[in-house]
Design a protein that fits this description.
6 helices; 17 strands; Diaminopimelate Epimerase, Chain A, domain 1; globular; 2 domains; 8-stranded mixed barrel; alpha+beta; 306 residues
């Protein structure tokens, strides 16, 4: 049986930028082992398998895999899949191109809003759970060694490395300058000491200096244990980052929007919109959004193996 797939570039408005994503539209009936093998074959940071679609209720069940393991939740797969399913299944029921839908991920239901205007697509989703502080990183000295930086490069203002999660844990590492971020050379021999063991020993590194004047933070993300040497745009890390931003920045009550630029060092510029709602100095809601571009469509599988 052949199954349809679509390649999308997410968090960008032009082809060959942003973070590429594979979405297998006909994912029903595939077991975990085969989904993992297919994700490894695509060898993108994530591959989505659409297990079922409920057109009447604008709802779909999806699974998300890196080349090496499954994720309960991820940002660019959520944004990309929401726009694709809206266009494939739900567009005809919307007169204005504005479509609300729900993606059932392993983390739970994720509410999304998609905007379709001609060939352009964009989506935002509400975080399925608010970020929480889940641990500490290694010492500043060990972190600096793992990133190939000096100790003086780690931290700025009140920001210091911490581990946060909004469904997927991340080590969030502030760096003093964009020059330092550009100079990062990961040292995997020190990686576990800096960021822990297991599947989630990643590092989301950020600074205030940006390439684009409209951006708020510049970031890079490294995740060797997931088969991701570097990620071009990491929405689930931006979701976790919402917690550390509220902790370290001064906010008045109300709505706040940030733009996180990522992927510039890879030649894949990406812009992640992070929207926060703060009440009584506490984060009560956060959303992640961005643009999506369709790149290619095809079929996988044949009677010989699928």
């Amino acid at each position: 049986m052949e199954r349809r797939y679509v390649i999308l570039d997410v968090f960008c408005n032009q082809p060959f930028a942003g973070n590429p994503l594979a979405v297998v539209l006909d994912g029903g009936g595939l077991d975990d082992e085969l989904m993992q093998k297919i994700a490894g074959e695509f060898n993108l940071s994530e591959t989505v398998f659409v297990k079922s679609v409920d057109e009447d209720n604008k709802r779909a069940q999806i699974r998300i895999f890196t080349p090496l393991h499954e994720l309960p939740f991820a940002g660019h797969p959520t944004v990309g899949t929401a726009t694709l399913l809206a266009r494939e299944y739900f567009k005809r029921s919307s007169a204005d191109g504005l479509i609300d839908l729900v993606l059932d991920e392993e983390v739970g239901p994720v509410k999304c809003t998609v905007t379709l205007e001609g060939n352009s697509s964009r989506a935002q989703f509400t975080l399925p759970q608010l970020p929480e502080h889940v641990g500490e990183c290694g010492s500043v000295e060990v972190i600096a060694k793992a990133l190939g930086l000096s100790v003086a490069d780690i931290g700025f203002d009140a920001h210091m490395p911490q581990q946060w999660s909004a469904g997927v844990p991340y080590s969030l590492v502030p760096v003093a300058s964009i020059e330092a971020i550009r100079n990062i050379i990961p040292d995997t021999t020190s990686w576990a000491d800096a960021f822990g063991e297991g599947h989630h020993n990643n590092a989301f590194v950020y600074c205030r200096e940006c390439e684009d004047a409209s951006s708020t933070f510049h970031a890079r993300m490294f995740w060797p244990s997931a088969g991701i040497r570097e990620d071009a745009a990491t929405g689930s890390a931006a979701a976790a980052f919402a917690g550390i931003v509220v902790q370290y920045e001064d906010f008045i009550d109300g709505d706040h929007t940030f733009v996180i630029e990522q992927g510039y060092e890879m030649g894949r510029p990406s812009l992640i919109n992070l929207m926060l709602e703060v009440r009584d100095e506490k984060l009560i809601c956060a959303k992640i959004g961005g643009d999506v571009v369709e790149i290619a469509r095809g079929m996988i599988g044949s009677s010989t193996w699928l």
